[in-house]
Amino acid sequence: MANNHRRKLFTTRRSLIGGISAGVLVAGALTTTSMMSPASAAEWPTPSDDRRISETQEISGEVDGGMVRYIGEGDLGDGGQDEGQPPMFKLADGATLKNVILGAPAADGIHCSGSCTLENVWWEDVGEDAATFRGGNGATFQVIGGGARKAEDKVLQHNGGGTLKVRGFAVEDFGKLYRSCGNCSTQYERHVELDTIEVTAPGKDIVGINENFGDTARLRNITVKGDGDRRIRPCVRWQGKEGGGEPTESGSGPDGRHCLYSEGDISYE
């Protein structure tokens, strides 16, 4: 292929490891219907095996990883925060990746070229970002279950248009759980819906959106742990830029138009 970082290893409804079909979940994996309660820090999954990769793995169709932990090396193994790193996995439009653990280093995590579903995917030590969502205004992205920790900056990066729906997800030790791109060359109206999320301090912001581009964020059933001073901000609004430049912060908290939640939607433990 022209891009030597990528190779097509997986096809529709094939497992990443032999003998496990896409329709089978290994012991300890969560089913779609049971993912509304995110795992706590003590319940992170144990990998079934470790595999080192040095090239981006391209995914199409539906792929079950059998809870294998993938560790980057070579071009995927820097472990830094530099922009422009290749992803460990690149999902085609409409693809589903489930039951995978990303170890460290993890480069730029997962890229979705269009609509995609990430189900029971775990990031043990987020690299540049955990997942980046691309595609046009009609794209729909789902993150069901799973979790991420040790993210110096962003966990879920939304660069394309459309709507990202996250439910049953756990995050800890992070900068921002979700960020609508503040200065992409092409900007979109973006929407995010968070439901049943466990947030464990330290952390900075749960959501960051661009109000000048019409973004919205809906937050429901958010539990924040270990943040007695309530320093983690649930929703921050920005004035985004198009084609470069630094976005500027314009406000935070529920406003009935962009940050859509009430006091009762956020609980503290």
Automatic annotation (TrEMBL):
Alphabetically ordered keywords of this record: Calcium, Lyase, Secreted, Signal
EC number assigned by the record: 4.2.2.2
Region (Disordered): 238-269
GO MF annotation terms: pectate lyase activity
Enzyme class: lyase
Coiled coil spans: none
Keyword Signal in record: yes
Gene Ontology cellular component annotations, sorted alphabetically: extracellular region
Catalytic activity line of the entry: Eliminative cleavage of (1->4)-alpha-D-galacturonan to give oligosaccharides with 4-deoxy-alpha-D-galact-4-enuronosyl groups at their non-reducing ends
Cofactor: Ca(2+)
Superkingdom field: Bacteria
Compartments reported by the entry: Secreted
Gene Ontology annotations of biological process type: pectin catabolic process
Function: Catalyzes the depolymerization of both polygalacturonate and pectins of methyl esterification degree from 22 to 89%, with an endo mode of action. In contrast to the majority of pectate lyases, displays high activity on highly methylated pectins.
Family recorded in the similarity comment: Belongs to the polysaccharide lyase 3 family.
Protein name as it appears in the record: Pectate lyase
Originating organism: Streptomyces boncukensis
